[in-house]
UniProtKB/TrEMBL annotation, chain A:
UniProt xrefs under InterPro entries: DUF6504 (IPR045443)
Transferase in keyword set: yes
Residue stretches making up the DUF6504 domain: 1-91
Entry keyword annotation includes Transferase: yes
Keywords, comma-separated and alphabetical: Transferase
Name of the protein in question: Nucleotidyltransferase
One term of GO molecular function: transferase activity
TrEMBL record, chain B:
Annotated keywords: Cytoplasm, DNA damage, DNA repair, DNA replication, DNA-directed DNA polymerase, Nucleotidyltransferase, Transferase
Any one Pfam family match given in the protein's UniProt record, by short name: PHP
CDD domains given in the database record: DnaE_OBF, PHP_PolIIIA
EC code: 2.7.7.7
Protein name, as recorded: DNA-directed DNA polymerase
Catalytic reactions on record: DNA(n) + a 2'-deoxyribonucleoside 5'-triphosphate = DNA(n+1) + diphosphate
Record NCBIfam families: polc (TIGR00594)
Source taxonomy: Bacteria, Bacillati, Actinomycetota, Actinomycetes, Streptosporangiales
Length: 91, 1177
């Protein structure tokens, strides 16, 4: 089933793609990138928009595993702030 | 090397963001060898793209991104000249079904497939089948395409959710089917940071607010990517499991297609030559023969005094005329333009044959050939005009001939041209309306979901400036500084709105350009329907010239219509046929009137500035008017030519000639260089270079670099001819100060003619003149100001009357005896009595005298008794059909009663009510029946009509006798008559003008209490005296002035005449918002006497009269004084606005000559004086 989260996560990136991340104190290793896409920010909804509404959100849907059990995780990366977030989990 | 094959520029309306030039420059920076432009459903940007690519040194590729049924799209690219012709015809065909919604089908593309390559990308039917995971359907569709045209698969990956997978499946389909695949990026903007603009355009196009689900651009990737970025896209699209070399193959196929599609502007697009209409026989021989005919017809074979048109005396002998003609013909022959002149002559003759007034304007008037062919009616030799300003060996490209026709019959002239030259060989020229501050703010405001009334308020607060000036204007313009608009939360709106600056938003028919060509026209330009139903090229006027197509400017001029109306009215009322062209140009009374500055309504000389100038210049001849029109320009003002000219003219100083050789050239303007023609002659005399090279040099003077070049050349040659150093230096200074700002004398002369003609009409056929001006509204003033001027000239204003008013304004004789008998009660024509007072008072003043009482000449007396009748067209909201029915039924038999009118004219109830309120039934109803009674009866009639229709179901004709019994009886005098104030209010609301009496008369009490000075008394006030004036705002202008300030000129009218007030920057902080925002003004200022009789005010303060009046009623005079004093204290003092500084030191405000903030001055505002509110300044 799908669960939606918005938890901040720490992500290790190699060659522009995520390879490991820590979520709720557990280390996950990325096995495979299933899909990668980007969207622009909803700049028109922001209270204090920056001078240049550039920057985008990058999504990575990956197969990752904390141990033996494989799950699908969606990571969200805000290129403007550099923040990572775990947005959805299928397990 | 990567190449972009799929690129939308801003000419994809409300879709693309970047200009063709910016795209080409970026592509060149990125090291690309070519660039495609594939705008949506149009070739609007094609010529600009080709020119931009040439400038950037890259190869142009052209195509179009076409709309297909079912929200699908396909891109086509042109290969070679065949491909370009197919592309033009295909785009035309796509637009031919429904105006404004172009649509293409696979069959249509198949029918134009020669030389086209179709790119099937994600938005194509094939791409959609792939997205829907229907590979078999995709394969079938692809197969069908391959039967219709040459196709390739276009891979696009914008990194959206699922894009990568879809791209990979597309590529797999191409490989399976054996169709080449190319890589595109469906470019919409230059840089990643531009995506918010594209997103605003996405929602604006769909008329929805910003929301993710409405956006085409979700990822911000549709920018002009570099080679490395495109390679990365290719890698992602091919996927990790792709065959080796797949990425290289994709990129190589893309390059290969690009190389095939690069077009040669000369060979493929025909941009290296001109494409004139076909002319039978040898055009040059025919041209010579036509000119010979012209010499006879214009009576130029004899030469000497006495020949020529009205009031002319010639200085030119037959031999001189002949030499001049041979010279012009020589140039035409060398340039191969004989067919061009024959075509234009044909067109002008065609227009005149229809009885449409037609005059040449611009430099073309300087050509003797044009005069002989009958294209123009101005004798260039008599006015000392030169052909070289118009056509010279040194002038590149096609010359420009502009024809002025009656604005009301412009489309009729177009239709004549289409008939004569053939539907497929003629097209109108288009123009792009671009985003400006107001439109940008409206669209962005809507996109972010601002409430409509707030958007309206913000947009109207801005003057009509460019969108990119929005934030600068917020800080610089006093009327905006006080508006609190510069607050944080609106900032994002202003920021995005600024970025819409200059983007095309709407295609429209150019107001005058017509393309005349041959049967290949449709191979050279895509054509769509204009709003008026004419075939319209997708090219604008610059594009058309670049493509070597002949464009004739047929300009609708309202004054020509106004004069035609006046002439028709004279003929209708008196049977006299006036031929304006034959009117002598030396009529004393006409110039006498011009010299008193009473020129409201006249062509070119009615603005406050011009009235001041004619007052100072005191014109006595047509040549004086030519100089007057030329002087009233930024150039002469800038070079300070006006003052020395006026001083020399009035004998206050000797004319100053730099060298005796230049006297013949500069004599006409007393030593001042006013005309382009004089620049040519000065250059010619000083250097001996000939007029053709002189024209080339003159054009170079426009740029700083050009000036340097010409400077060296000029000094060298002039010194070599023996002119001394100081003379050369002095002449050069004059020439550069003159810069490119001066005026073409031929143009001024062709303007002076209608100026004189309109003034002549005003002087001698005053009522007919006003009927024309009020019908066609040619000028800058609201109609109520013209109406007031008519009162001052003694023309009775006859109220709206269903039995007398026509569709347009008519002259109506008012016999003195009859007018007393039929005179309406005084309350209704209060205007008449001050009018008579005024006539009496002007009798004491200097001339002109126009009515019998003022001792006018005999034609004047005849006009004195001619009134003007308010037109039915002035009634707000009345339809053409209603006007036609009212007039048509009345011609059968005059209306006998309101009921008769209601039954026969069958107008809607609101219109009938407006007619009642505006007094159109007063005469019919007779004494004792008030307008309110009539309104009540109208309601009864309406109810009866509805009831009759319901009960009898339309069986009983409405005009049967029994009809009456259904109508309730409303006895006369049941309801009170409207007060004079209510009547004027109704007139302003319904007709937009105060017919029965002047609006200001209701404020007389307050104005007298304040000691306000009336316009007619102002000349008696000494210079420097501080006075208060009041009036209805009739005009505000912000022209370019010498100091570079933004100066506001406001004209108010107070029933005794106009008052011109000047607001300098130092007072604008407290005045600008009031001047622009209010309709009734009280102004305080110091009197200035700039001319012989002219008076203006240097304004120091102004207030809204309505607010003062409210205050007066509430608290009396002390309260008013208190309010006025309070307004005086507002403001932060002067603040200099920014300046545009020209190369020659001329400074100009960036806000000069633009439409101002607030609503239009032409109609009174919705709320009138009884409503309170509005700021007091």
């Amino acid at each position: 089933m799908t669960r939606v989260f918005g938890d901040p996560v720490d992500v290790w990136v190699t060659d522009g793609r995520p390879v490991r991340f820590v979520w709720r104190g557990r280390l996950y290793t990325v096995r495979r990138v299933l899909e990668h896409w980007v969207t622009t920010r909803d700049w028109w909804r922001e209270q204090q928009p920056d001078e240049e509404p550039a920057g985008e959100r990058e999504f990575w849907r990956v197969e990752a595993t904390p141990d033996t059990e494989i799950g699908v995780y969606e990571l969200r990366h805000d290129t403007a702030t550099g923040d990572w977030m775990l947005s959805r989990v299928w397990d | 090397m990567a190449v972009h094959l799929h690129v939308a520029s801003a000419y994809s309306l409300r879709y693309g963001v970047a200009t063709p030039r910016a795209l080409a420059e970026r592509a060149a920076e990125l090291g690309m060898g070519s660039l495609a432009l594939t705008d949506r459903d149009g070739l609007y940007g094609a010529v600009k793209h080709v020119q931009a690519c040439r400038a950037a040194g890259i190869g142009p590729i052209l195509g179009a991104d076409l709309t297909m049924p079912g929200e699908r799209r396909a891109v086509v690219l042109a290969v070679g000249g065949t491909g370009w012709r197919s592309l033009c015809r295909l785009v035309t065909a796509a637009h031919s079904a429904v105006r404004g919604s172009p649509v293409t089908s696979r069959e249509l593309i198949g029918a134009h497939a020669a030389g086209l390559v179709v790119l099937l990308g994600p938005a194509s039917d094939v791409g959609q089948a792939i997205a829907d995971r229907l590979p078999d359907l995709a394969a079938r569709r692809l197969a069908a395409w391959r039967e219709s045209a040459e196709v390739v698969i276009e891979i696009v990956d914008h990194h959206g959710a699922g894009d990568g997978h879809r791209a990979a499946r597309m590529l797999a389909l191409a490989r399976e089917a054996g169709v080449p695949a190319v890589l595109g990026n469906a470019v919409r903007y230059l840089s990643p940071g531009d995506h918010p603009v594209a997103q605003v355009l996405d929602v604006t196009r769909r008329l929805v607010p910003l929301h993710r689900r409405h956006l085409d651009d979700q990822t911000g990737q549709a920018y002009l990517k570099s080679e490395a970025e495109m390679r990365r896209v290719a890698e992602l699209s091919c996927g990790p499991g792709a065959a080796p070399g797949e990425v290289e193959r994709l990129l190589a196929d893309t390059r290969e297609l690009a190389e095939r599609c690069v077009l040669d502007p000369a060979r493929d697009l025909g941009m290296d030559r001109v494409h004139l209409p076909d002319v039978t026989g040898d055009p040059y021989e025919r041209l010579v023969a036509r000119c010979e005919d012209g010499l006879v017809r214009r009576d130029l074979t004899r030469g000497g005094p006495g020949r020529g048109g009205p009031g002319r005396s010639s200085r030119h002998t037959a031999a001189e005329v002949r030499a001049h003609l041979d010279h012009e013909l020589g140039i035409i022959r060398r340039k191969g333009l004989a067919a061009y002149f024959l075509t234009v002559a044909d067109a002008a003759a065609l227009i005149r044959e229809r009885g449409i007034r037609c005059a040449i304007r611009g430099s073309g008037a300087g050509s003797l050939v044009n005069y002989l062919l009958g294209i123009g009616d101005l004798d260039p030799l008599r006015h000392d005009l030169v052909m070289e300003r118009f056509l010279a060996d040194s002038r590149p490209g096609l010359p420009d001939i502009d024809l002025d026709v009656e604005s009301a019959r412009r489309l009729e002239a177009y239709r004549a041209l289409f008939e004569r030259f053939g539907q497929n060989n003629v097209a109108c020229v288009s123009m792009m309306e671009t985003y400006r501050a107001r439109s940008a703010l409206r669209d962005v405001g809507n996109a972010v979901g601002l409430p409509p009334h707030e958007i309206d308020a913000i947009a109207k607060a801005f003057p009509q400036i460019q969108a990119r000036q929005i934030r600068a204007a917020l800080h610089e313009l006093p009327e905006l500084r006080q508006s609190n608009l510069a607050q944080g939360h609106l900032d994002v709106i202003f920021r995005i709105a600024e970025r819409l600056d200059g983007l095309p938003r709407h295609i429209a028919m150019h107001p005058c350009g017509v393309l005349l060509s041959n049967a290949t026209l449709r191979d050279r330009t895509a054509v769509e329907q204009s709003m008026a139903g004419f075939p319209m090229s997708q090219f604008d006027k610059e594009d058309v010239e670049a493509m070597g197509l002949l464009k004739l400017d047929v300009i609708g001029v309202r004054m020509q219509s106004a004069m035609a109306h006046a002439v028709a009215e004279i003929a209708r009322v008196t049977g006299e046929h006036v031929d304006l062209e034959a009117v002598p140009h030396d009529d004393g009374p006409t110039y006498e009137m011009i010299r008193t500055s009473r020129t409201l309504g006249c062509f070119q000389i009615e603005s406050p500035g011009q009235r001041e100038l004619v007052g100072k210049l005191q014109p006595r001849t047509l040549a004086d008017l030519v100089i007057d029109i030329s002087l009233f320009r930024p150039g002469p003002v800038n070079a300070d030519m006006v003052t020395p000219f006026l001083e020399s003219r009035h004998g206050l100083r000797q004319p100053d000639y730099p060298h005796p050789d230049l006297v013949p050239v500069l004599q006409e303007s007393l030593g001042v260089v006013v005309f382009h023609e004089q620049v040519l002659r000065v250059l010619d005399i000083m250097t001996g270079c000939g007029l053709s090279d002189a024209e080339a040099a003159r054009r170079s003077l426009a740029t700083e670099a050009g000036q340097e070049q010409v400077s060296e050349w000029f000094r060298e040659l002039a010194l070599a001819r023996g002119y001394d150093e100081p003379t050369v230096e002095r002449v050069w200074r004059v020439l550069t100060a003159f810069g490119a700002f001066g005026f073409c004398k031929a143009h001024a002369a062709s303007f002076a003619l209608p100026t004189y003609q309109s003034a002549w009409l005003k002087r001698h056929h005053t009522a007919a003149f006003y009927a024309g001006v009020l019908t066609h509204d040619p000028g800058m003033y609201p109609k109520r100001a013209i109406l007031d001027d008519a009162r001052h000239f003694g023309v009775p204003i006859l109220p709206l009357d269903v039995n007398r008013s026509a569709e347009t304004w008519h002259v109506e004789p008012v016999s003195q005896g009859a007018s007393t008998a039929a005179e309406p009660p005084p309350s209704r024509c209060g205007g008449l009595s001050p009018l008579e007072k005024h006539c009496a008072s002007t009798a004491a003043e200097p001339p002109p005298a126009h009515c019998g009482g003022c001792g006018g000449s005999s034609p004047c007396e005849k006009n004195c008794t001619a009134g003007i009748r308010v037109a039915l067209n002035e009634v707000k909201g009345i339809s053409r059909a209603e006007v036609e029915r009212i007039v048509g039924e009345r011609d059968v038999r005059p209306y006998s009663s309101l009921r008769d009118f209601w039954r026969r004219a069958r107008v809607s109830r609101p219109i009938a009510e407006r007619l009642v309120m505006a007094g159109a039934f007063d005469d019919l109803a007779g004494e004792g029946v008030s307008r309110r009674d009539l309104l009540c009866r109208l309601g009864a009639l309406d109810r009866a009509t509805v009831a009759a229709a319901r009960v009898i179901e339309g069986q009983l004709p409405l005009d049967c006798d029994e009809f009456g019994q259904f109508v309730e009886k409303i006895p006369a005098g049941e309801l009170p008559e409207m007060t004079p104030a209510e009547m004027v209010e109704a007139e302003l609301a319904i007709l937009g003008m105060d017919v029965s009496r002047h609006v200001l008369s209701f404020y007389d009490g307050l104005l007298d209490a304040l000691g306000v000075v009336r316009a007619r008394d102002l000349p008696g006030r000494p210079a420097g005296a501080e006075v208060l004036v009041a009036g209805v705002k009739v005009a505000t202008q912000t022209p370019a002035v010498r100091s570079g300030q933004r100066v506001i000129f406001a004209t108010v009218d107070d029933a005794t005449g106009p008052v011109d007030a000047t607001f300098f920057e130092s007072v604008q902080d407290r005045c600008a918002a009031t001047v622009f925002g209010c309709w009734l003004l009280v102004i305080r200022g110091r009197v200035r006497h700039p001319g012989m009789r002219a008076v203006t005010l240097n304004a120091t303060a102004c207030w809204d009269l309505v607010s003062l009046y409210e205050e007066w009623r509430r608290g009396g005079l002390p309260a008013v004084r208190h309010l006025m004093a309070a307004a005086d204290r507002v403001g932060t003092g002067p603040r200099a606005g920014s300046r545009i500084i020209y190369a020659n030191g001329f400074a100009m405000s960036p806000y000069a000559d633009i439409g101002h903030a607030g609503g239009a001055v032409k109609r009174p505002p919705g709320r009138l004086w009884h409503a309170s509110g509005g700021s007091s300044g």
